[in-house]
Amino acid sequence: xxxxxxxxxxxxxxxxxxxxxxxxRLAALLxxxxxxxxxxxxxxxxxxxxxxxxxxxxxxxxxxxRVRRALGPAGAALAGRWRTAAAxxxxxxxxRRTADLGMTVTRHGAAGYPAPLVDDVEPPAVAFHxxxxxxxxAPKVAVVGTRRCxxxxxxxxxxxxxxxxxAGVVVxxxxxxxxxxxxxxxxxxxxxxxxxGVVGSGLDxxxxxxxxxxxxxxxxxGLLLSEAPPGSPPERWRFPxxxxxxxxxxxxxxxxxxxxxxxxxxxVDEADRRATDVFAVPGSVRNPAAAGTNDLLAEGRPPAxxxxxxxxxxxLGAGRRxxxxxxxxxxGPDDASVLEHVGWQxxxxxxxxxxxxxxxxxxxxxxxxxxxxxxxxxxxxxxxRVGPVPGVR
Amino acid sequence: xxxSAHSATLLGxxxxxxxxxxxxxxxxxxxxxxxLPDTTCREARDRVRAALLSSSLTWPLKRVxxxxxxxxxxxxxxxxxxxxxxxxxxxxxxxPAPSLADRAFVGELGLDGSVRHVPGALPMIxxxxxxxxxxxxxxxxxxxxxxxxxxxxxxxxxDAVGALRxxxxxxxxxxxxxAPPQPRGPDLADVRGQPVxxxxxxxxxxxxxxxxxxxxPGAGKTMLARRVPGLLPDxxxxxxxxxxxxxxxxxxxxxxxxxxxxxxFRAPHHGASAVSLVGGGSHVLTPGEVSLAHHGIxxxxxxxxxxxxxxxxxxxxxxxxxxxxxxxxxxxxxxARILLxxxxxxxxxxxxxxxxxxxxxxxxxxxxxxxxxxxxxxRFDLRVEVGRPDVPELLSxxxxxxxxxxxxxxxxxxxxxxxxxxxxNARLAARxxxxxxxxxxxxxxxxxxxxxxxxxxxxxxxxVRRVARTVxxxxxxxxxxxxxxxSTALALRAEPTFLGGRAA
Lengths: 393, 504
Prior knowledge:
The structure holds two protein chains of two kinds.
Chain A (H helix, E strand, L loop, with lengths): L7 H9 L6 H10 L2 H10 L8 H4 L7 H8 L3 H13 L3 H10 L3 E4 L7 H4 L7 E6 L8 E5 L6 H16 L3 E4 L5 H12 L5 E3 L13 H10 L1 E4 L11 H12 L2 E4 L7 H11 L3 E4 L10 H8 L8 H7 L19 H7 L7 E2 H8 L3 H14 L2 E4 L2 E4 L8
Parallel strand pairs in A: 3-4, 3-7, 4-5, 5-6, 7-8
Antiparallel strand pairs in A: 1-2, 2-6, 9-11, 10-11
Chain B lengths: L1 E10 L2 E12 L4 E5 L4 H4 L1 H11 L8 E7 L11 H11 L11 E4 L1 E2 L5 E2 L4 H6 L5 E5 L3 H7 L3 E5 L2 H9 L29 H13 L3 E4 L6 H5 L11 H13 L15 E2 L7 H5 L10 H4 L4 E4 L7 H5 L2 H6 L1 E5 L4 E5 L3 E6 L17 H9 L3 H5 L3 E4 L5 H5 L7 H14 L13 H7 L4 H12 L5 H17 L8 H9 L5 H4 L4
Parallel strand pairs in B: 3-4, 5-8, 8-9, 10-15, 10-16, 11-12, 12-15
Antiparallel strand pairs in B: 1-2, 2-4, 6-7, 13-14
């Protein structure tokens, strides 16, 4: 306890809230000076535009190298901005707010810090979580992928999430739109192993906004984790940092769908740094959202065709595969002949009319019935077959 | 001495009769035009003077006052030149004053005494009540199209003066030329594959439903749109007269034979201003592209690149079929009964229709989608996504159904509309829908599902029923609409991907 009865975590939270405070800078700072000392020195410094970071923080000649490197060439201006921001930030109020939001704050090297991150190559200096960190003791698989996914990708992610959770595996993902959200929804639907979400924004900033339900259910049933302090907006640079935590937590990473360039491939790079196995779900050559995952397969990564492939790699053996009860009403013979022509990849109405050799007035009612029966998904003029576990949106 | 001659001026796309009074009196030589002339009209003084002198006539060295009645109506253009010259010659005793009685004059004078064509001759002549009209040779065809007057085409002022004096005969009017059939434009047989878009084009032509084509660059949206006018039947006499009047007023060249018989096709560039699209202007109230497309097709290519405020100015004309332009001095109604065909990319990169292929950020897609207001999109009862045809289709030598075959079906469906008290299915009033577009039970359930799922709004419901009526008409189906017609109409109303706001 510091003289004003605030724990060190309160000062760490305040330091993490400063502008442009990335994981490397925060780690350098807290690795050099205790948080309460750093904070007091910041606040007491003379107001002004620029500061020498070493002087500002009262560092000795040997100590300030790491901080200086982390701050980069604009260090003096940045230190000045920190000084200004710190002067107007009420640490006690921030700490009360953090507590009111139900968040737990842990520091690297202190008690309560998430165990799988302790020995990581780049551990978050401060971690915020809601939920039960004990769930991290179970085997963990990250199911990640693009936000701009196909309906098939969404459906596969949901199936993987469900089957992995059923086998007792903790599904780690980013709670983003597309694959991430679908994986979590699948895991929640299994009502088995708890899910873990790692997000880029503050735990009180729901992003994307339509995932409000996931932001409530994931911490209620498992754990929601972030290194961003409360109130942090979903800034661009926070997502690669978030991906690194997902890779650090997971025992295996599964990429369901990724474009040739995308955040999911960044997670793969981070997994490679930690020598974590990466699986890729094979996709159609016509699906641009599968180009990145197919590239991963070409690099020699193992394919994940079902949860079993991943479970074997975890040494859990093939899980008890749950027989899926298909509750959908069987399509009539006429509709079935149309369903044959609807691919698992998005198919345009034009392609369907040509393949089925029908004109629109005979094709449209059949498609309407198939959508109604849950056999076909329809979005923006594209039709696509879906499995018995539709990618819950 | 006082003399007067009949003529007309143009207000919007309508002619208004004008009486030109010329008073020649003793006094300081001078020439004044009163009665709200615009600049071109005021300059008549210099043209008339030079034309008189070039034609070996005398310019009276007296005080000349020209009054253009009614004085409250703004007179535009040079069409009054010939009437001013005739009245001036009568007032100065160079032609007998009674020769102007029951004759009207429309034409611009050149400095050499020639009489020239003026834009808007057709509506101007249509507004004249005199028995004879003296017009420039270039206006003779338009005057004959009006058909109510004895047409006296003259090449020069001297011709007109000689005939008015009785010294020579009026030049004979040109023999009416048999109008050659006007071409139907590019043929639908050129379009390979794309059965859905082809069908949408057919439904649009048959029912007059506004059509939005969404697709990546190179999918053939423009190619399809240019084939819509060929599917429409010829304009009937009244429609042709209206369309020809508008084209004449805008100074567009008229087809040989005089009448615009084929539905016009107008494709303004996406840089168009609101005024150029809907018409207007500070004092010359000219028809815009919407009016020029009256009874035809307005094609807006790259709809997403138009200025949003320009597009929103289209909403009222699309609803009412008429544009009311009001200025301080005049109010005009410009006809604008159009079939709107628009084409656009699904997003800035153009690839957004294929799920997962789009390279745009969510924010960029949002910005692009916001350029189209919801009410405008609602006006399109047909929205189809046009994909790039597959390679085998492109290379196939089998041509599609030709325009002539599709046009025959379209003509048959259009022929049903008058019996329902409308001009085409798209203009069926809500009250009429309950009579001619009743629903079978299964069809009603399909609509109910769409409404409940939020795929359809109350306003869209009427549109779907109108389109379904056209689909049924094309299939030769009478009576209540079946589920196949309603499902087809729903399938042709795809919520464009970018408007759905969902990435997949």
